[in-house]
Amino acid sequence: MTLATATAPTEVGIYADIPDAVYHADRNSLSSSGARKLLPPSCPAIFRYEQDQPPEIKTEFEFGHAAHTLVLGKGADLVDVGFDSWATKASKEARDAARAAGKTPLKSEDYAKAHAMAAAVKRNPVAAALLENGTPELSMYWDDPETGSRLRCRPDWLTHTTTGRPLCVDYKTTAKSAQPAAFGKSAADFGYHQQAPFYLDGLEANGLADAAFLFVVQSKVAPYLVSVVELDPEAIALGRDLNRAAIRLFADCMATDTWPSYGDHIHLVNIPQYAYYQSAGLLNAQ
Fold this sequence. Notes:
- The chain is of the alpha+beta class.
- The chain has a domain at 13-37 and 119-256: Lambda Exonuclease, Chain A, CATH 3.90.320.10.
- Helix content is 46%, strand content 16%.
- It has eleven helices and ten strands.
- Strands 4-7-8-9-10 form a five-stranded mixed beta sheet.
- A hairpin with a 6-residue loop joins strand 9 and strand 10.
- Helix 2 crosses helix 9, helix 4 runs parallel beside helix 6 (108-123) and helix 9 (192-205) crosses helix 10 (233-256).
- It starts with 12 loop residues before the first strand and ends with a helix.
């Protein structure tokens, strides 16, 4: 399958050869990130707008892709452009040429950093064991039993435990700490508690029942420490409830081709509680 001829599959199942561009451009199925985009603080109007716009290439995303490529062993070739910034014309031309060739351009510092991060993952015994044997980036499609909506997910890494239990591993990088407790806040902020059950349900729908889901979390700050995290069942249950709301909303929007924003009415909005406390202290000091 070439990128020029590739299209999203019409049948449910697990596919190993769906190009990134085809997978992410599919407007007829809902992904985990799309489910999160449908719900507050976002809305269906933003979800549809972003589907309609060509994705903007951002260098910070390219670095994230580079780390994934080295850790998972799959992705576009990485290119050290030989520059330390994108400020010059020559550096931008080198960057654009690499992109045009289907490669990921990196500043020299970031190229070295991505390799250092990959080496740090391999030094973590738990992460290294999880990523030793498995398959990266399989694309999975299934139909929601309740609404009939087509859903999709793309696990970073699919493997099995020593007892044969399916195991999905997701690699996350963070600009902050990889300390496990800190990841709980990141999970809430970025909806990772929705991603895990979305993927688990996709695995089960494709015949991989009773799967486990683990996050390999790595700091992008030296010494690039790594932790392996599993979300609490209560968080998974909440995420699954949010996913159900998003899937129902997606089905309604698709059926009517209506993608609402924040509602066509006047909203009564309060200010945060901390503002009351701050103001009370200020007034009491008068």
